[in-house]
Amino acid sequence: MSRVGKYPVELPQGVSVTIEGDVLSAKGKLGELQFTLSPDLVDTTVEDGKVVVTPKATHKQARMMWGTTRARINNLVKGVSVGFSKTLDIVGVGYRASLQGTNLLISLGMSHDIMYPVPAGITVKVPSPTQIEISGADKQVVGQVAAEIRSFRKPEPYKGKGVKYSTETILRKEGKKK
Fold first, then answer.
1. In terms of CATH architecture, what is 84-165?
2. Does this model's pTM top 0.85?
3. Is domain 4-81 annotated with CATH 3.40.50.300?
4. How many angstroms separate the CA atoms of 36 and 69, rounded?
């Protein structure tokens, strides 16, 4: 069983964390993020450059929220100081992407091009027509945007055509035999 909750979250230089009621706010060079705490299950305090999370009880729900709360706070702190990013690769003849203002135009071999509006707080770069870089402070939103773009044309197992994460490996199937 993981005991990630017992480790305090270190606050890097330039990041401030405040707790007002049930809301924890982290502010850094990349913006400000908020997280709603579970005050009946865990206690959260800021002590000399560290955020400490402790469970209020020993029952299962409190122990689960202990680790979850610590991980979410760590993601907030990392997000406002360094940020998160995902890279997507587009594989296939004629498949490409480009930026048009705040919209991402993706051509994936369908009868129409896909116009994807980029949400606020997310930065999308297209260094080459077959690569998309998504970055932002909120880990959940960055992952959600990457998953939505990937869902337009998931990679298929025979030729590997589609939109895939750059770290993803496609299990290839053997084609028909004569």
1. Alpha-Beta Complex (3.90)
2. yes
3. no
4. 9
